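Weekly puzzle thread! Below is a chain. First person to post its structure in token form gets bragging rights.
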Amino acid sequence: MQKAKDRGLVHPRAQWLFVIPDTDSSSDSVASLAPLLDEGQNVAFASNATQRSTTCSIGVLCHCDEILSSFLTALDESVREEQELSIQVSEEEWEAIRPTKEERMKHILKHIHVSRTRW
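Winning reply:
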């Protein structure tokens, strides 16, 4: 992440997705990367923090599919909730109350956790 930033490759017009398929403490390692990001940078991390299971027999591709499906569902829900709130207030009020990148990350992670418990 730092190498990409140093080379000027991380900016609002670029989109990055880092997939971390199998680590024991991926949620800790992903959270530690948040301070490296600036507001408006389009960076996503998909990590597998689940126990290995027999329901996913294909390996990394299956895990990536599960991770991305959960992420997209959670992102959709988060964006929808933000849009509903933003249309209820003025632009000035929205600028004052809109979520920070850390609040967005926590909100999306919460929704990912909720969607995974439904499986």
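Puzzle host: Confirmed. Bonus trivia for everyone else. The radius of gyration is 16 Å.
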